[in-house]
Each structure stands twice: as C-alpha cells, then as structure tokens.
Amino acid sequence: MSNDVASPAKILRPSRELYRKAVRRDLLISVPVFVLVAGSQIVLQLMRAAVANDGSGYVLVWVYVALVLLTPVLTIAIYKGMLHNSRIDLGDTALAATNFLGRTRTIEYANVGTVIQGMLRLPAITLPVLFLLDQDGKRTLTMYGTLWPTEAMLEVGAATRVAPTVFQAPVTYAELRTQYPKAVSWARAHPILLAVIVAGGVFLLLIGFLIVLFSVLFSGI
Predict the structure, then answer these.
(1) Count of Cβ atoms closer than 10 Å to residue 86 Cβ
(2) Which end of the chain is more exposed for a tag (fewer CB within 10 A), N or C?
C-alpha cells in the first residue's frame, strides 16, 4: 500500500461511545430550551392571529410546529452522519478530513505551522482538543473530545511531524485567542457576551411585539 492520502497508512474513526455521551448531555440542555422557545412563539402567534383576525399568524404557527417536528429528524440525521461519514485518512505527506456531510478536504503537513494539544475549558464541560494551524496561524483542523478519542488526536499531531504546543492546564477560547488571534473567532472567545447581545435583541423584538399587541387591543377603548 502506498503511503499517501489516496491509499492512507491509517484511517481514524470517531468514537461512538464519546459521541453518544455528548449528544445525551446536549439534549438534556437544548430540548427544554427549544420546547420553551417554540411553545412561547406558538402561543404569541395564536394571540396575534386572534387579535388581528387574519391567517398570517396561523401560518407562522404551522411553521413553528413544523420546526418542532423536523428537529428530531435533523438530529438523528446529523448523529448518523457524524458516525458514518466522519473520518481522517493519514497519509505520508498529507491527511484527508471528511466531515459528517461527506465533504473531504486535504491538509498538507508542510502547510501546518502549529499543533495545539490540551484540554479546552467550556462553560459546561472540559474536554480534550487538538488544533492544527497553518503557517499564518489560521485553524485548519479541530478535533474535539466529544467525538474523537485522545489517541486519535495524538496520532494526527504526530503525523504532521510538528512539535506540539501542549497546555498543561485547561484553557478557554478567550485565552487561546490572546495567543492565536487568527485561530479563534471573537464569537467563540466571548460566548456569554454574544448570548447577552442575542438575548437583548430578542427581548427588544418581544417588547416591540407587545407594544403593537396592546395598542391593537386597547385602540377601540
């Protein structure tokens, strides 16, 4: 067997057990929030349709209902795609990374400038992670411990033949961004601030809707 990406020396697959644990953990958080948001929107649209006495609100209600019904289907499709399609083919001079959609991209080892290995500290969990950065410091590949076992990360890092930067203590995206600004986006580095901005925008939209609603309700008084 030739040792290139077309005939890889080794094929790495994600861990089914790790991904199942991650999915269960995420569903415990996301499902109640999704049901609350979708349910509140359905109630608001029903109220709007009743007050306005037209069918536009009911159209939006059916849209939200469709989203509620489609979400489990999409979740299952992504779950199966992650486990079935995701893979990393290690060759002698390059690797080929295939995502859950089946799209493959090739990363030449010669273009890898930095290999980062360590523990990433997120708001709800700390997990192993590996980053490959190109010569300009941009992230070209990320492997998370929610999908990939640590052994697979170590094999990818070793295949590049680049001495890894190892963080002994868990680090956050914000801390990584201070050292590698091109590798981590502002949104990833400041998730709480981003959530506040998004929540503030949603709150302002809700206030505007309530103002319009009450103006309609009391316009005839």
Answers:
(1) 19
(2) C
Contacts by residues 42-46 (CB-CB < 8 Å, ≥ 24 positions apart): 44/209
With 90 as the cut, is the pLDDT of residue 15 above it? Answer: yes
112-121 and 139-144 beta bridge pairing: unpaired
- Alpha-carbon distance values, 90 to 12, 146, 162, 166, 168 (Å): 8, 21, 15, 21, 26
Predicted pLDDT of residue 78: 80
Predicted pLDDT of residue 186: 79
In tens, the pLDDT along 176-211 reads 999 999 988 877 777 777 677 777 776 667 666 556
CA distances from 3 to 7, 80, 96, 176 (A): 6, 29, 13, 34
Q: How far is it, in rounded angstroms, from Cα 123 to Cα 194? A: 13
Element (H, E) at 128: strand 126-134
Count of residues in the chain: 221
Calpha distance 139→119 (Å, rounded): 17
pTM of the model: 0.69
Euclidean distance between CA atoms 94 and 107, whole angstroms: 6
Cα–Cα dist 6/172, whole Å: 36
